[in-house]
Specification:
Helix content is 32%, strand content 25%. It has 506 residues and is of the alpha+beta class. An eight-stranded mixed sheet has the order 8-12-13-20-19-18-17-16, with helices on both faces. The chain has a five-stranded mixed barrel with strand order 1-2-3-5-4. Strands 9-11-10 form a three-stranded antiparallel sheet, with no helix packed on it. The two termini are 16 Å apart. Its main location: cytoplasm.
Length: 506
């Protein structure tokens, strides 16, 4: 006896045994020839064209059973929605032998089971388009009961299961019982496909670069580390794919992009997951001014593709992705929000400002990290409508080209929307001598204990020495962008399987 099973689970296992004893296969292997889907039938069936729906085969999960004795009304859910089956005993078992009806329909099926049905489509007396079933096939017996949700007369859920621990850990159930969840992930795919089409139409080439890297480069972040047994070397899960994509620009590609699954061994919150998706692209002979313009075009395109308008509702705020977007330097943004001009301060001066503003900072932080902390604490959340924060100090941007006219700055922007960074872009540094010096500065920060400082990638330096054309590159956080475009409050709501603590199993 399985003492850990609930009463419902025990009953379902008993039903499973009875089905098998009656010669009913509860998990058949054969293909089931589905011909129609719920939404398509509902959209296209009329009394005038009912002859086109005389031989229909559907399949789905049982979501409700209404037992009327010799007639059952069963609602199934397929990949496109809910659909009603009208199941009459004498149609399913037209002869004297009614054992199938008794074993399967009357006593064998439960909510959550997956069944198939063939028959013809008609409209019931209550006006519901339904399938008059002529055969029923049990395709999968469900041994765990679904959580109970409330539905209106049309079958729409109005009391969704909201417990995040349950929803994120058992996403497969979440998708079954909460229809809006499935819609979010369909929108996510539409968003990615829109970006891919946008780039492909402009001649960009999609590529793949390594996930396991000997040096975790291209970003300031703490990596995950593993070990390769055959080579007996440490390897890192990538924190970014930037340096590999730039190698391809050196190799002669004009425009490359990749949807990169990145990994950072850092904290988790509503906008951070240790595993996340970033789109990066690099385009030869362009600069960050061009990149701002094409980024505006892309954001407009995504909003229109998902919503039919550039105005997107995010919580209680309407965000307009119509170009052009505001542009402001990071120093001006900080001064705009604090009244303090930090543009000429050294590290000691920045630490005093942090103290004055009650911002806690670590002793191993250099100028770049201190400025980043000040901006994050005082200004970032203020930029709700799309805004380009531009012209960062060189200490914050070790892979970025120095500004053409402003000493001490680099040609970089971050796109802020709803108070969060959505994109990060540069005029890329292609001077190998300058790049080596920047890496060496990062090495000094690492020696001070900064776990997020960049490693020196000598092969990348060698690639730059062959010559990389003037290039502009960008990284766009797909998960955060998806949160915005689908009005979801947490990154866990746009990741099918967000990271969670392991369950404690006895």
């Amino acid at each position: 006896m399985n003492t850990h099973l609930s009463e419902q689970e025990i009953i379902r296992r008993e039903k499973l045994a009875k089905l098998k004893a009656a010669g009913i296969e509860p998990y058949p292997a054969a293909l089931y020839p589905v011909t129609h889907y719920s939404a398509d039938i509902k959209a296209n069936f009329t009394e005038e064209n009912k002859s086109a729906f005389e031989q229909v085969c559907v399949a789905g999960r049982i979501m409700s059973i209404n037992d009327k004795g010799k007639v059952f009304f069963i609602k199934i859910q397929d990949s496109k929605g809910l659909f009603q089956l009208y199941v009459k005993r004498d149609d399913i078992c037209p002869g004297d032998d009614k054992s199938f009806w008794d074993h399967v329909i009357k006593h064998g099926i439960d909510l959550g089971d997956i069944i198939g049905a063939t028959g013809f489509v008609f409209i019931t007396k209550t006006g519901e388009i339904s399938l008059h079933a002529q055969t029923i096939t049990l395709l999968t017996k469900s041994l765990k009961p679904l959580p109970v949700v409330k539905r209106d007369e049309a079958g729409n859920v109005y009391d969704e299961v909201t417990d995040p621990e349950f929803r994120y850990r058992q996403r497969y159930v979440d998708l079954i019982i909460n229809p809006s969840v499935k819609e979010t992930f369909e929108q996510r795919t539409k968003l990615i496909n829109t970006i891919r089409a946008f780039l492909n139409e402009r001649g960009a080439l999609e590529v793949d670069t390594p996930v396991l890297q000997p040096i975790p480069g291209g970003a300031a972040a703490k990596p995950f580390i593993t070990h390769h047994n055959a080579l007996d070397i440490p390897l890192y899960l990538r924190i970014a794919n930037e340096l590999y994509l730039k190698r391809l620009i050196v190799g002669g590609f004009d425009w490359v992009y990749e949807f990169s699954r990145n990994f950072r061994n850092e904290g988790m919150d509503r906008t951070h997951n240790p595993e996340f998706t970033v789109l990066e692209w690099y385009t030869a002979f362009k600069d960050y001014f061009w990149m701002m313009e094409i980024t505006e075009q892309l954001m407009e395109k995504i909003a229109l593709a998902l919503h039919g308008t550039t105005e997107v509702q995010v919580g209680n705020t309407t965000i307009n992705f119509k170009a052009p977007y505001k542009r402001i330097s990071i120093f001006d943004a900080i001064q705009e929000n604090t009244g303090i001009d930090i543009s000429h301060l050294d590290e000691a001066g920045l630490r005093n400002v942090c103290k004055q503003l009650h911002i806690e900072v670590a002793d191993n932080m250099g100028k770049g990290k201190l400025i980043d902390e000040i901006f994050g604490a005082t200004s970032e959340h203020k930029y709700v409508q799309p805004t380009f924060i531009i012209d960062y100090p060189v200490e914050m941007s070790p892979l970025t080209k120095k500004h053409r006219s402003k000493a001490g700055l680099v040609e970089r922007f971050e796109l802020m929307v709803n108070g969060k960074e959505i994109a990060n872009a540069y005029s890329e540094l292609n001077d190998p001598i300058d790049q080596r010096e920047r890496f060496e500065e990062q090495l000094k920060l690492m020696q001070r204990g900064d776990e997020e400082a960049m490693y020196i990638d000598y092969d990348f330096l060698r690639a730059l020495e062959y010559g990389m054309p003037p290039t502009s590159g960008i990284g766009i956080g797909i998960d955060r962008l998806c949160m915005l475009m689908t009005n979801q409050p947490s990154i866990q709501d746009v990741l099918l399987f967000p990271q969670m603590r392991p369950e404690k199993n006895s």
